[in-house]
Hints:
The complex is a heterodimer of chains A (442) and B (296). Chain A has 442 residues and is of the alpha/beta class.
Amino acid sequence: MKLTKSFVFLIIALCLALPASVFAKPVTINWWHAMRSARGKIVETMIQEFNASQSEYKVVGTNKGNYDETMNAGVAAFRAKKQPHMLQVFEVGTQTMMMSGAVYPVYKLMEDAKIDVDWSRYLQAVLSYYMNADGNLMSMPFNSSTPIMYYNVDMFKKAGIAPLSKTKPITWDELGEITKKIVSANIASAGMVTAWQSWTQIENYSAIHNIPFASKANGYEGLDCELEINNPQVVNHITRLKSWADDNRFMYGGQKYQGPKSEFIAQNVAVYIDSISGIAKLKKTVKDFKWDAAPLPVEANTKKLQNSIIGGASIWVLKGHSDAEYKGVATFLKFLAGNKMQEFWHKETGYFPITIDAYESLKAKGYYDENPLQEVGINQLNRAIPTKISRGLRLGYFVQIRNIINEELEQVWNGKKSPQEAMDSAVKRSNVQLRTFEKTYE
Amino acid sequence: MIKRSFFKSKYLPYLLILPQMVVTLTFFYWPAIKGIIQSFLLSDPFGRKSTFVWFYNYRELFTDPLYLKSIFITCTFSIAVAAVSLSLGLFIASMANRALKATALIRTLLIWPYAVAPAISGIMWLFLLHPSYGVVALGIKNWMGIDWNPVLYGSDAMVMIVMASAWKQISYNFVFFMAGLQAVPKSLIEAAAIDGASPLKRFWFITFPLLSPTFFFLTVMNIIYSFFETFGIIHTVTQGGPGGSTNILVYKVYQDGFVGLNLGSSAAQSVVLMTLIIVITFLQFRFVEKKVQYGG
């Protein structure tokens, strides 16, 4: 009797001990992201590759909706202490994440996990957007893009305009001449259209010409920063666009990309400024005309052109998990940054590869000879070492600020305000948001 | 004679209303109180830091000219939606109320739009009226020669969202007006007809007063609808633009709170919105209801 009892006990003990040793279960790592449909599938493929490549960790990716919804899901989960290990957050949420105290900085994660990363082999203009003031990387860049200029080759030919260079940008004045020819010859009803106006026409315009968007190095060096977009250069640029709007060289197609894109596809305009992610979209839908891409136009008298800035999202590591799990997160992030994954990601989605190695490897394989369009954005992004002004923007309540800029620009386009009035008002209103943000973290 | 029930136990009635009380307390009062508290705080979204700031959030709101404009836009919008959907609903109901062969079919068809979700309704109207790809918009621009552009002009955008919002609500109003019309005694109308009252007079002096309870109820419902449930339409059609010209209060609450993560301001806006709707409903009951003639 006693023997049976101890035998049963032994069996139970064995059963309890076994799964932990022999059938060691992989450590589960959760990743909440905002990638849906085609991109969601690509992300899923990358996760599966990682899970198949080793047996210690198992990454589980979950789509939580669009960017806003994903960030909100992360916030709510953190409050309920059920946060995932990794959260994908769009670039405008960077400051909120950084101030939250809820994140485990990526540079520190890599150090603690003893994974050696040579950050200098990453695209600097991508990294700098997610660095703190000391130059340490806070989150891992994931999907990054930058705006470029698309144009209708057939229309250019009809107007007798030579195709544009893919590396050397034209000037805004030249673009004015081009669109004038096209509109006056009735080749298209309007000259150019732009998607994401705040990002392409103010944020990137300022970065490329090294004009501060906000004080305190665009907010990197203090919460007490103020917007500075009512400077003469930006106001002149908006005034020029407004004068173009008056003679149809520019048309307003909406805040996002859908309206502007459909104007370009319908051949109502000859020039269309949008993110490099437009390449895939245009390839898919445009069948009846030839189009090409060039870098964003620049001002004629610029001494030194700076890099354009990125948009997109990065992966934040959230606090509150065990060291073993963080080791897995670090391993996964390292895996994602590897050449194989970066090349796959870049080819499939058009988003930048984040390392120079991946870019050079693709170049060596002749990928850019076959797909010259894909290199336009990379060249523009890499044309200079980012300065304190062109490395990115670090603003609290950036979502609200972009909304304010959109509202004010729309009032310029429909003639309710002069460019100077609108930019002054945008600065004033945004500063109220910045002060509230500052007060929150006092 | 009024029926009354008497309970022998003192506690039974309380027990019986308990489930309803629990539901109301957890799903209405608790969040509302949380919202009121939040409106006095400045807190970071991750909930690690909260500062009590008295009326800071309210002061910021009421010194923001755009917020005051948003209140004005909301009132214009809801009056327009209520006016359009009530008048068209009533018009269609009185047309459909006549003895027609296909009455049942017509009625069913007219109720359908109510089953369409606001967001879907918004998308459909957008596909019709968007200046770049809207089918009807192209017609308006090309054949009527009107410079229709809701992406650029605030007034065009307002017309578009009023249409999309009212279209859905017409069906709802239609159902209630239809029921109300059928309750109007035929004898009264026939008597008036014999006395030589024109159809318009009969409608104005007999049908309309008898419909007034329905009309009053629908006015309240339509205003509440246009304040809150039109969110989906705004979100899909204009996102509050252009230049903030269709940024109604409930959409601003969403943008500042859910997207922008400014919880304090968003909570303060919700409290203002709640107060506003309480005041409007109170005023309606206080002044308009006096003129309503409930059945004698």
